[in-house]
Amino acid sequence: MRRTMAAGAASALLVAGCSGDAGDGSPASSTPGGQSAASSSAAAPSGPATTTSSGRSRLDTVRATKRLRVCTTGDYRPFTYLDPATKAYSGIDVTMAKSLAASLGAQITWVPTTWKNLMPDFLAKCDIGMGGVSISTDRAQRAFFSDPVLTEGKTPITLCRNVSKFDTVAEINRPGVRSITPEGGTNEEFAVANYPKGR
Q1: Alpha-carbon torsion (70, 72, 77, 81), positive or negative
Q2: Which long-range contacts (CB under 8 A, 24 or more apart) does 170-174 make?
Q3: What's the average model confidence in pLDDT over 152-172?
């Protein structure tokens, strides 16, 4: 069986003061997909997603506590990656999160999550979610997104020698072709919808 992996776009889920899914190998193709976004310090409308139990906005809470809680999977280069040896985070979104925290005079508390649990963890434990989070209608109904900074599609990844074998969705959607995706994210949704014969 051939293995391909779908990659998504980078976004930031925001509940505090903002408006509003990696592997080694070579990209085989790019299909229409989502947008990506970055953090912003503009004030967001008040509501259940942007206020705490005290009625204070999450942005005000971050400023008062000097702590910015960031949900991230840490498994999606180049956006966020948690080094298993050093336990340190790196990536584009990590840099943006640090910049946001600095602008608010806050320290970051990293909150590990998974794609399957991203939204529940984000809503219960975090002020912001980052790390290649594709903008979807389902997510947008429960949280604000920052302004998009990147628009890209789903990109299957395979070994360089197999690129010509898997450069279209139709070539991937065949019996015997197995796709590996993170559980619970938009990449899995895309695979279920577009590669039913190969799963």
Answers
A1: positive
A2: 172/4, 172/28, 172/198, 173/197, 173/198, 174/198
A3: 87
> Which pair of structure tokens corresponds to residue 22?
């990696």
Q: How far lies 85's CA from each of 88, 117, 156, in Å?
A: 8, 24, 28
Phi first, then psi, for residue 193 (nearest 5°) are -75, -35
Q: Cβ atoms within 10 A of the Cβ of 15, count?
A: 26
- Cα–Cα distance between 123 and 138 in angstroms, integer? 13
The reported pLDDT for the residue numbered 182 is 81
Name the phi and psi angles at 75, rounded to 5.
-130, 20
* 113 closest CA partner among 131, 98, 97: 131
Tokens, residue 94: 């990590």
H/E stretch holding 95 reads helix 92-104
- Assign residue 10 a region (left: φ > 0; alpha: ψ between -120 and 50; beta: otherwise): beta
pLDDT tens profile 130-148? 988 888 898 899 999 988 7
Candidates 152, 24, 127; CA nearest to 72 is 127
Give me the pLDDT at residue 11, please.
53
Tokens found for residue 31: 């299909």
Whole-model pTM: value is 0.69
